[in-house]
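Anyone opening a protein record will find just a pair of labelled lines. The record below illustrates this layout.
***
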Amino acid sequence: MNVNKTIRNGAETRANQGFQANKPSRRMSVAPMLDWTDRHYRYFARQITRHAWLYTEMVTTGALLNGDVARHLRFDEAEHPIALQLGGSEPAELAACAKLAAEWGYDEVNLNVGCPSERVQKGAFGACLMAEPQLVSDCVKAMRDAVDIDVTVKHRIGIDQIEHYDYLREFVDTVAEAGCHTFIVHARNAILKGLSPKENREIPPLKYDYVYRLKRERPDLEILINGGVKTNAEIAEHLKHVDGVMVGREAYHNPWLMAEWDALFYGDESAGPERAAVVDAMMPYVTARLGDGSNVRHIARHILGLFQGLPGARNWRRMLSDSKLLDGADAGLLRQAYEATLAGRRG
């Protein structure tokens, strides 16, 4: 399949269209992933793609209202466009947290209605909220009343053994009545009992046709698809049917997948990234974060896949995961690891 030809047909005219005229459209985004999409990973991802939307890890309302707000919400200006994902089910609490998101400069606040973990269920939010569409609608309305930034919802196509399309459609229709315009649909059911979060990402079958049908039936809504996407060819196919594609673990483990997104999916023909330039950009960032109390280990774990699939990649991963080298390291370790990567490539 010729991905370039498929996507560039009309990409130039659609590049900056979408639902926010002053920001890139959500044609591409990186999924919120707990313990993974922290500020360090997001800064790294932004060195590879200029236009894709970046989502935070899920942050619970309790963590913001009763904890260290700065620790959860701080980000680098380079990360825009950026969305904060919230976990919660109390409209007033979500509204208060949405206000914090707006005050801190986020471009979007997203409500998690997709996480199936038992810990999240004990808090009565995440995927179990799909059983309460009116409550989700109330939460969205409260957030929309509190802020001017976009309020979006990320959800599954169903829960447990409820597998018929009408369940998804009724959920979306109910929440859309509260003014939600953007729905990010993980095209699997969430099994609330008996499967781990990892198994919930792999075992329930993907039903992309449900999401395609939703877009056909609700063309007034912005519909993004998520789940199981691994290649740019797959992304190109999905974009024939929906407004955007959200990629999760593949963007994390194989980050250079994102290197073509600006050209393929936004029509941006300017020079794409070079891996050496990404390393160069990360070095001053590491130095700055060391001054904030972080250490190289916190950042290095997110960039191990930069040379995935290339000769010498093993040297990069080895040096940036070596506990002895990481202890007390500064940004110079990245340069040393890069030189070792080049040496491995020559060898």
